[in-house]
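Sequence design from tokenized structure. All designs in this work follow the same two-part layout: the structure record, then the generated sequence. An example of the structure record is given first.
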């Protein structure tokens, strides 16, 4: 079936929305955070562990799976769900971001037909078109597929962005025409940098193509300011239909997620929680911490006392620090479990705040603690 979105409540003071995303693999509350499983796996975690942290939709990467093992192998396995043994909903991106990011230092040629570029693995010549991206995703058989778009850098000029948007719209139409998986939904992508007129134009024209959901792209590029990111959301949201899901691509910073939710976004994804974990960093209510720091060598408390994740229930910062310093994979696993659960817990709290019309108060309290550098935590311990 195609996905549907049921809007249940809008916060009375903001555009924050509470609803349900209905998929082939169940119904899930929004707003939601989607863990990223680039190569048909969320790094270091099993599908069973994802379920334990209440993960719902996960994102897999079309570009990487196209290169290996190949979409035909996955199709022969019965599609992504069977291939990776995950019975929850899966979203596949178009491969566009990887084409424009992984090969950013290599020669590529953008034409009306598609993009010529070299593989980041072996330098082989590749050609990806809107039709090819959709055909790959049809074979992967994800619940949600993404349109193939151009991902211009944050530094792109107004004129370049305008031409890029017009090309992306033509690609979106071609991809939609090529889409043949009746059980798979297809999202359109809004671009336009931080220019209000380009965002509104892109949004209106993309909505006119009547996709199953809509994404706001071009908001997690290198060099982009927070102000530009929030402006891009503000300029896009008013033109997106209320009865379809809205997805902010590539955003996983807790404060950015809150700001996106307040502006009316339903879905988020990012590699940040697992990438931070592999470098020894953990999310906490009082900001990120680097577990490698010497202060945690004899810290026999969990990462967060009130966290219900497996890592916090069973292990201490001292032990996890030892694992990270010793380059033991288990340390990255534990931090990944915690970081993903942290963001999913954040979404649970945001959903509750929306239903209670208290999301502005929630944002104020969260940011105060998160930016305190641990001062709020110390004050709390001292009952101040």
């Amino acid at each position: 079936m195609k996905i549907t979105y049921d809007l249940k409540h809008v916060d009375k003071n903001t555009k924050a929305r509470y609803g349900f995303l209905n998929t082939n693999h169940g119904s899930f509350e929004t707003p939601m955070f989607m863990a990223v499983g680039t190569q048909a796996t969320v790094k270091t975690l099993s599908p069973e562990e994802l379920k334990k942290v209440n993960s719902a939709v996960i994102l897999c990467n079309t570009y990487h799976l196209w290169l290996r093992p190949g979409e035909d192998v996955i199709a022969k396995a019965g599609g992504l769900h069977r291939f990776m043994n995950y019975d929850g909903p899966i979203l596949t991106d178009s491969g566009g971001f990887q084409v424009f990011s992984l090969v950013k230092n290599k020669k590529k040629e953008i034409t009306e037909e598609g993009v010529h570029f070299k593989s980041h693995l072996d330098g082989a010549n590749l050609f990806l078109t809107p039709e090819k991206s959709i055909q790959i995703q049809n074979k992967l058989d994800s619940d949600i597929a993404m349109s193939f778009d151009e991902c211009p850098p944050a530094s792109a000029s107004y004129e370049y962005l305008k031409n890029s948007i017009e090309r992306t719209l033509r690609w979106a139409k071609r991809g939609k025409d090529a889409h043949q998986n009746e059980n798979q939904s297809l999202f359109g992508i809004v671009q336009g940098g931080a220019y209000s007129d380009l965002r509104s134009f892109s949004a209106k024209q993309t909505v006119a193509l009547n996709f199953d959901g809509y994404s706001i792209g071009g908001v997690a590029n290198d060099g982009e300011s927070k102000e530009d990111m929030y402006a891009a959301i503000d300029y896009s949201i008013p033109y997106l239909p209320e009865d379809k899901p809205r997805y902010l691509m590539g955003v996983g910073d807790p404060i950015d997620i809150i700001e996106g939710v307040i502006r009316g976004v339903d879905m988020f994804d990012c590699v940040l929680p697992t990438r931070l974990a592999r470098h020894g960093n953990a999310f906490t209510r009082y900001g990120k911490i680097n577990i490698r720091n010497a202060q945690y060598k004899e810290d026999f408390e969990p990462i967060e006392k009130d966290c219900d994740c497996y890592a916090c229930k069973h292990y201490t910062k001292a032990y996890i620090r030892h694992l990270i310093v010793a380059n033991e994979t288990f340390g990255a696993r534990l931090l990944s479990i915690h970081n993903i659960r942290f963001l999913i817990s954040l979404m649970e709290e945001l959903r509750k705040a929306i239903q209670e019309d208290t999301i502005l108060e929630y944002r104020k309290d969260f940011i105060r603690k998160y930016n305190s550098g641990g001062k709020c935590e110390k004050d709390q311990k001292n009952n101040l």
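The chain has two domains: 4-270, 277-374. We note this feature because it recurs in several other targets discussed in the main text.
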